[in-house]
Amino acid sequence: MEIGWMCYLRQRQVLVFFVLLSMFGVGAELGPYSVVEEMEKGSFVANLGKDLGLGLTDMYNRRARIIFQGNKEHLQLKVQTGDLLINEKLDREELCGPADPCLLYFQLLMEKPLEIFQAELRVKDINDNSPVFTEREMILRIPENSPLGIAFPLSNALDLDVGSNNVQNYKISPNSHFRVLTRKLSDGRIYPELVLEEELDREEEPEIVLTLTALDGGSPPRYGTAQVRIEVVDSNDNAPEFEQPIYKVQIPENSQVGSLVVTVSARDLDSGVHGKIAYTLFQPSEDISKTLEVNPVTGEIELRKQVDFETVQSYEVDIKATDGGGLSGKCTLLLQVVDVNDNPPEVTMSALTSPILENSPEIVVAVFSVSDPDSGDNGKTVSSIQDDLPFLLKPSVKNFYTLVTKRALDREERAQYNITITVTDLGTPRLKTQHNITVTVSDVNDNAPAFSQTTYTLRVRENNSPALHIGSVSATDRDSGANAQVTYSLLPPADPQLPLASLVSINADNGQLFALRSLDYEALQAFEFGVRAADRGSPALSSQARVRVLVLDDNDNAPFVLYPPQNGSAPCTELVPRAAEAGYLVTKVVAVDGDSGQNAWLSYQLLKATEPGLFGVWAHNGEVRTARLLSERDAVKHRLVVLVRDNGEPPRSASVTLHVLLVDGFSQPYLPLPEVAAAEARADPLTVYLVVALASVSSLFLFSVLVFVAVRLCRRSRAASAGRCSGPEGHFPGHLVDVSGAGTLSQSYQYEVCLRGGSGTSEFKFLKPIIPNLQFQSTGKEVEENPPFQNNFGI
């Protein structure tokens, strides 16, 4: 029984030693503080704020808290006042057992900034437990011939209190044979011995019953009793003796149940029943009784359960050998448990910050501690994380580490990190523990929206319906949340004359562009504006893109004939000499189209003619030419209808009517059309003269035949000269024009007409304009397109 108590005491001392060892060097020390066990919850212990010299709000602002090993909550900290209070009733016997003093270690952790203080709490004992004997009745068989002064060990009483409150003395009830001695072991335990003071006589008193009382040192003292029954036996003068008084054995902690620990051996010089020995554990503690068992015959001691070095490092128990006569001897077994690396390291996370802001400098992400219950190299640890992460492990104080960022983090590069903290011990084989934490990176508005294109080109056909969706712009923002929500807006146009607000609008949420009104290609072929994309961060970031809108032409304009003019009061009449050859240029129809591209490609077609086959129209430039030689049988007046058509889809067209008058020569009077004679008479006095000249020519026709030969001879004589030209008297009434295919005419030209002497065909040519009433927008291409006329007339 004494040996069991000593083993229990040593077990608790070793545990306290390793607790102190694991907490040593955690940081600056506070205290020590002490309380009496069984104090009520909420009892005041100390004011940590005053001990640290901190203000009332410092403890709260720095997020101070109390950390006990094993996540116990014996104390609570009022961060508002700094008071340290009892959080639950403390039972010293439950917390520390027989260990004295009873010390509880804790840490004060303050996060902002990180600071750790080591403190200890001493729990003082009160006399709240009475001594208790493990054996309520002890039976001793004492030979009657036992010598005086012989001592018989008795079972000791256990008192959960410590110090002076533990067992201090033993008393025996009054008798004439025995007295009790109080012995003290080296470990401080006290046990009783029964000493024989007067010889026993079995015949007179075969049995003696005594009461053993154990007293503690409390005030008032507490006590416990047990009954000692003494049986006086016949003489047995030799007690068993062990070969070794102390057996020292080591056993690995992972030994299997039933493993042989040691074999003890004792001998007795007596014979017969008095020489037969039985082995038992002497006064084992409850833990030893569950751990060891002894074979009563062979003395083999085996394991009843596996031993754990981290729980109990050593055992001490007495082995008792008793012979058949009741005599006994004892030895001591010292069992040392050898540590095996069977415990992986443990990681305790004290603080974790997540999420963390991107672009921030070095940040403390986590604070954690590492422990390993094993000893020696088995308890030494190495901590690490993955190499490819922007984090760093820094040792803070003993067994504490901080996880910090190596650099500012970019959420757009990576928004979440899965960090594996790996802790490996140095034992054989090595054991490791992995603790996973997830750290998220919160967004900062550090990215402006980015358009998918710097310039957008949109095409919309003219005459569109209002509110037509003509295209979209798109911008993305690498940020998240409100920082990534993009709104679109139009920038003021660079050209203040451009009415952008009435042309397009943009959807602020999705960047869709709409035409607000119908567009007209002929009025506006293209326009350009800027678009801004801004996020909703603070401050907001933005970017710009250019949008160019091209208005596509629609065939919505019919060709417009510039010449001959269609708005005059009198139609134009073209004069053609009967001597004109095939291909003679009669006139040119000039038309324009307000559209563009193939919608403005014009083609010309002779739709109607008084005499089909006499005149033709060139399809590409609108020139009206004679298709064959003229004859006397051809009518004098001709009416031509020319159709001008564009190349659009569907095609549009316009028509113009030409009046052509065939004359024998430019000396022949101009005969106006009957329907326009009156109008020409009012418009030009020359008309009257032409009518008179026509009558004169008729009367002089015969005379002209007679002088025909003379006239021809006269022209031949002038052929050698430079061809001096003389204009006819008065202005030529015809309106003959020559313009390019791309020109635009608003009025007509008048030309001088020259008849060359010696020409039997009375050919004529265009000369220079006499009255430049019409402004051309041409390059003189007409002259190039008519080389026959250039050759004939030398222009």
From TrEMBL:
Any keyword Endoplasmic reticulum? no
What membrane topology does the annotation report for this chain?
Single-pass membrane protein
Residue ranges constituting the Cadherin domain according to the UniProt record: 134-242, 243-347, 348-451, 452-561, 576-676
Compartments where located: Membrane
* Xref: PROSITE patterns: CADHERIN_1, CADHERIN_2
Q: Where are the transmembrane segments?
A: 688-711
Query: Does the entry feature the keyword Membrane, yes or no?
Result: yes
Protein keywords: Calcium, Cell adhesion, Glycoprotein, Membrane, Repeat, Transmembrane, Transmembrane helix
| Record-linked SUPFAM superfamilies | Cadherin-like
PANTHER family, per the entry: CADHERIN-87A, PROTOCADHERIN BETA-16
UniProt protein name: Protocadherin beta-16
- Species source reads Acinonyx jubatus
The encoding gene: PCDHB16
